[in-house]
Structures are given as C-alpha cells and as structure tokens.
Amino acid sequence: MWHFVYNFSESHYDMENVVLEKRELTGKKCKKLIRDGFVPCAIYNIKGKTKLCQLKKGTAEKLLRGVTSSTMLDLEYEKKKLKALVKDIDTNPRTDAIRHISFFELDEDTALTFEIPFVLEGEAPAVKNNIGVLIQTTNYIMVKCKSQDLIPQIEVDISSLAEIGDSILVSDIKIPPELEILNEEEVLSYTIATITELQKEIEIEEPEEEEEDGEELGDEEATEGDETGGTGEETGGEETAEGKKEEN
Q1: Are residues 83 and 132 in the same domain?
Q2: Distances (CA, A) of 88 to 63, 68, 100, 178, 230
Q3: pTM for the whole thing?
C-alpha cells in the first residue's frame, strides 16, 4: 500500500500546470539532458507503470523551493492532465543541483494512506495562568481516503485545558466520515494534547574556588613533611644507637 506524508501547508501548488516532456535518453545518457538545461523525471502510478519524462531546469528548481513530498500538483504529460505528488527529488550532495525527480500519479477513484496533521488552535488557560505546560503528544493521524476527500489539517481547540492533567483525546475530535482512521480502536484513545506540571528549578551548588583547594593541599603537604621529618629523626637515632653497640 502506498503511504504519503501529506503536508498541507500548501494543499495545492500555486503555479501554472507543470508541463513534462517525453524523455528518450536513459541511464548515463541523462547527463546530456542536464547539460542541455533539463532534469530527467519519471511518473509512477499505483498499477506499477512508469512514464519517462523531462522537465525544464527552471521549473524543476521552482518545484524544489515550493513543494514537499506531499504537495498535490497538476501535471501535463503528452497533452493529458493528471494530479500527482512528488515522490522523491534527487540532488547532488555537493552542488545541490537536481539530478532526478520522481512523481506519483494519483487515481481519484483509489483510496490511499495519508498522514493528516493535528493543528492546535486557541490558548490553554492553564498555560495563560502559568499553572502548567502544554504538551502535544500526537502530531498526526493516519487515514485512508481518496485524494478528493483530503482535508488540509485537523484543528484541535485547546481552550478547555485549564488544569494539570486536562487532556484532549483523538476520540474528542470530530473527524470527517470520508476519512477512514487506521487502527481506529487503538488510535481513538491516543492523547493529542495534555497539561503537565511546571518543572521546578534545581539550584546547583558552585564548586569551591581553586585557591582554597590549593591552600588545603599545601597544608596537607606540610603535614606530610613534618611526619616524614619526624620519621627521619627516629631512624637516625636508631642508627646512632646501633653504632654505639658496635663500638662497645
């Protein structure tokens, strides 16, 4: 099953139809296309068929700046109109030049799997009154639907979150019936947003200054010196006593 991350920051690309020309060159010969100001492309569909095509470099660069892998496009290929998503854009890692673009043709009668984002709207009283912190734990929902039934986003009103522990679940949100939620029984219990406790500031004790440490080490060394000196005297006394014994 095809799966697309549908980014609805732009639900439809705002530009003239993307006109693709039929491509004859393949493989390493595509380098000539790039030198001539074209980008090699391919259009795939759900039936596994592939159309080889090419796109003018300027249009390809405009696509790269303005679309994501989930922006719906109006394509024109061999005078036929079709809707598609950008499946992949291959660029040169050193120069960022576009080397290849893959499109996926959408069949309006075939349901596909998409990720639709949750967008938090409004202001949580708990945050406004500095009672707690707002955490969004679920960012999107997986649905199966036809392309014409896609919606840009699912808005979640957070104005009811007033106390610590207040939450909004997927089951609290009205989702259009045209969107089939995958793993619905499990997903409906997911938390979209919740209020948690404010984190307490932890005071960190500053370490003692190095000078004080040095003084303490100096005292210890002096003490060790005294102890060593005392031991030396005792040793010297023993040697003297032994010397007297030999003389005797």
Answers
A1: no
A2: 12, 9, 8, 28, 83
A3: 0.56
